[in-house]
From TrEMBL:
Subcellular location: Cytoplasm
Gene behind the chain: fabZ
Name of this chain's protein: 3-hydroxyacyl-[acyl-carrier-protein] dehydratase FabZ
Keywords: Cytoplasm, Lipid A biosynthesis, Lipid biosynthesis, Lipid metabolism, Lyase
Reactions this protein catalyses: a (3R)-hydroxyacyl-[ACP] = a (2E)-enoyl-[ACP] + H2O
SUPFAM superfamilies, per database record: Thioesterase/thiol ester dehydrase-isomerase
Predominant subcellular localization, coarse grouping: cytoplasm
Record-stated family: Belongs to the thioester dehydratase family. FabZ subfamily.
Active site: 47
One of the GO biological process terms: fatty acid biosynthetic process
Gene Ontology molecular-function annotations: (3R)-hydroxyacyl-[acyl-carrier-protein] dehydratase activity
Keyword Transit peptide among UniProt keywords: no
Amino acid sequence: MDIQRILELLPHRYPFLMVDRVLEMETGKRIKALKNVTFNEPHFLGHFPGEPIMPGVLMLEALAQMGGILIRHSTDLEGELEIFFAAIDNARFRRPVKPGDQLILEGEITGRKGPFWKLRGRALVDGELAVEADLMGVIRRKKVDE
């Protein structure tokens, strides 16, 4: 899945879009995606000068967006949909992520109850675990202004 399709599924835009490409996806089961980490991303100006490191919260956001793509692609709901990040548990940061790295994002659906979806996510750099977490998202039909 290329960036054009990702833009159709997610409301995020630069500089907050954190998924560049979907590499693999099994609808309703799992996803593998890519985030290219580049030096020109605005957060590197202050995090940290002289030692740029991707903020952990943005790595988690990348996992959440990856999960949103999988959920959106896996639902049988029709019409305009919204997906919200609902919870995070068991987040662990294993190594710093720096400009020039490629984050390989992997996610697997671990549960679903009504509009709530659970996902186990992790991100790797050069095969080494950078971050892992359990995420929850909720999907609903977009409310139309009356």
